[in-house]
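#lab-general

N.A. 3:47 PM
ok so I finally got the sequence cleaned up, no stray characters, all 502 residues accounted for. can someone with queue access submit it? mine expired

B.Y. 3:52 PM
send it over

N.A. 3:53 PM
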Amino acid sequence: MASRNRFFSKTTTITTKIGSDTRPPVVELLPPDLSPEAAFERLNSLPYCLWLDSALADDPRSRYSYLAADPCRGHRIDRPISDPLATIDRWLAQHPSSRCPELPPFQGGVAGYMAYEFGRCFERILPAKHDEFGLPLAVLGMYDVVLAWDHALGRGWLISQGYGAPPHGGDAERLLLAERRAEPFRRRLFAPTPSSASIQPINMHAMAHGLTAPQFETRLGGGWVGNFDSQGYQQTVQRARQYILAGDIFQVNLSQRLLCPARCDSRTLYQRLRRLNAAPFAAYFDMGPAQIVSASPERFLKVQDGWIETRTIKGTRRRPPADASGGIDRSLDEQIASEVLSSPKDRAENIMIVDLLRNDLSRICEPESLVVDQLCGIEYYPYVVHLVSSIRARMRTDAGFSDLIAAVFPGGSITGAPKVRAMEIISELEPTVRGPYCGSLGYVGTNGEMDWNILIRTLTCSHGWWQFQVGGGIVAHSQPDMEEEETWTKAAGIIAAIDATL
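B.Y. 4:20 PM
back already:
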């Protein structure tokens, strides 16, 4: 297939290493000074702008970032249906491609988000009592133009696939369509200055869009309200413990929602968040009436070369505050890490979810391929230290994207064990639906590569409100006051970013 590579240097080896039949029709090397941040400034006014942003520098999981917008097709799910991803499977089957190994893994395909309640497509679970914002269960776009950066190499590319070209037209028709789709992106990217159209007004329909769940003042002040007060949250933790002691479940993830009126547009909020609370699986997604702003440290699923990887975070402590120069007391930092590492409660909770994830993956992987390659390892983030485990397995060759999601969604680390009963208890105990929180955002490429996060440390900007949720795993030995305090520890980075917008 013919390719157009206007920005490749003469010394590039991509054309000699990659057969023409494996390459996207248009692959262009971006100028070195066009960073993801600069590209976002120029593309963020396009519909369904999506930035999969590996914002945490010097982290091995932060190698690639992607920016896409204006998908050639969209797929939205508003209520539970059977086989909800059948349309996505068909579209992927109609546009198969091979991975060009010289480029970052996502070279075009389907991307977007699935809400926590998307799991109701697979299990008969009633929703929480209040659904005040009515957000879709899933919004997915078929992205034929992707900007991809490899931070290890310091390079970025514009990739245009030409999806949707007439099958009888051959390579020439696909190249023509790929060129036509790429041209508006080039104009925006290389315009002298960003368009003023990128200024995003704040949607101030908050009063017309009334809140039906009870709201309580929080310790944060500044207009922040929650769907629990302190006593109510601790009582709910105790109710969760009673389910555990009665033998219904072993563990359940419980959360509280925090809410305040918007203080700036969501794009500005995200840019502040990524600077102050960088994360390897951060993301911004504009789905029209709402935007998702995420600083997630947690991977849900990655598929590469047929291998699935999933990671679970269970066990969290707040890091020491930085001094005036930005430094952290190293000995105190190590002491806090040692505390979480040696905590029987945190280790038991983490290992319990590892077992749950192994069970989920067993439905979709080859027998005997499951490997726990990290068990209760320590990982550091700007505001917290986490206990993290990682599991790998080889995906069955006869399984597709929808099979994988049906087997494992939503993630075990944000539900509990056994999963279905834990989800029923979450719907009973939490007064409001979770929406994007604890759902997933990411991509599945037409080349079979996938990477999806778990939407924690995530704000949803909608109807003039900013909302986010914080929670933790409840086990038999949980202490209600400490469980509540853990939620405030997890909120610290988000709150710092929001306070910086004032």
